[in-house]
Amino acid sequence: MSLSAGFAQASELPKPLTKDDFIAFDAKQARLGQLLFYDKILSGNRNISCGTCHHHDLGGTDGLSLGIGEGGEGVGLKRTAGKGENRIRKRIPRNAPALWNLGAKQINVLFHDGRLTKSDLYENGFNSPAEEWLPKGLPNLLAAQAMLPMTAQFEMAGNPKENQVAGAAHDRIDKVWPILAKRVRTIPAYGEKFVDAFDRVNSPEDVTMVDIAEALAAFIGTEWQSFDAPFDDYLAGNENALSMSQKRGLDLFFGKANCSSCHSGALLSDQKFHALALPPFGPGRTRLFDPTARDVGRMGESDDLEDAYRFRTPSLRNVTLTGPYGHNGAYPTLRGIVEHHLDPLTALDNWTPDQAKLPAAPWLQKIDFLVQDDKREMARVRSRVDIEPVKLERTEVDDLLAFLKALEGKSALKLPLGRPAAVPSGLSVD
């Protein structure tokens, strides 16, 4: 590939993504997964679906800093925190991660803290929060991930005593899945579709949560594939695919700005964990012994002090569509998160709570920014920064942002299946 003089050399750039870089999913299973993805039948109180927080209209996310899970109403910025006894008890502690290219073969870790990886530790193929209770037979990391949100109290399961699923979740995680599988397979339309989509399913009675998870994975893994951005055309040898500003941004990204030290490879993520001193807020993903609201990131999974406040590097594919940004959605704009990377501690000092996109929940307002008043915790956050400040002119930041726009796929807003108009359960579709 011949690149214009003055811009990043071919040896510095990733290899282009191709169809061969992705798991080959079954088309019938993907179409079935589309229905399940938007069907609230998989939640304890039948009031939230995967699609509620990973919506097509919002680039596969929810447009919020911290999500409103079980008990909320609506989608995106119009989502409310519910009312009366059904109102939410807690915000989702972290930003809803984007779904782009999660079906890539090179993906080896999921969630902001990496709590799901491939592993033989529990003899089921994965190291996950379900440990040995995760069933065998899940074909890939994405299917294993699909099993987990529906067991989480504040995401999809609901509160204790509200429903059978929530009760099971507080007994043992694996007791949730048979309940949900029975709900699905006893709906005639679903039973028929599973028999048609899976060779191993001979009758609706055979359907298990493993089959449901595999269908969800097939949908997510095919629907959110994206490798037709101007950047991809440029990698394929078309030097005219990028504007001059985008080429300057590319040169900064792979050079002076040092973005590619973490956002590397074809997915623009090293799949590792880094501390950026992002402004903390919200309930935090606390551990059993944490005395107050906080989020120690990767350390919560690894129990290694070296991992404190480190979070997984996100892919930048279609990043223009997936704000707010950061593991807790601290920045509503790309410029904000880019400028934070350039000078983390100054940005931390200058951050203001009004930047967080949090639907009103007056009963939670005391905890929303409580961590900001904890001087010791804020000092700990400040003490862990893995990136060095970089001085860029505003015009250079403009060029970086132009390059990030070049990572947006041409078909990203026109995905193959989209949101279904209706689902077999007859429940409403968000």
Please describe what this structure looks like.
- It is a single chain.
- The chain has 430 residues and is mostly helical.
- It folds into 2 domains: 10-18 and 227-405, Cytochrome c-like domain (Cytochrome Bc1 Complex, Chain D, domain 2); 25-61 and 97-223, Cytochrome c-like domain (Cytochrome Bc1 Complex, Chain D, domain 2), CATH 1.10.760.
- 30% of the residues lie in helices and 3% in strands.
- It contains 16 helices and 5 strands.
- The protein has helices at 27-37, 50-53, 141-146, 153-157, 164-169, 176-185, 188-197, 209-223, 230-235, 244-253, 299-302, 334-342, 344-350, 365-368, 375-383, 394-405, and strands at residues 109-110, 116-118, 126-127, 273-275, 310-312.
- The strands form 2 sheets. A 3-stranded antiparallel beta sheet has the order 1-2-3.
- Strand 1 and strand 2 form a beta hairpin.
- Helix 12 (334-342) packs across helix 13.
- The radius of gyration is 22 Å and the shape is globular.
- It starts with 26 loop residues before the first helix and ends in a 25-residue tail after the last helix.
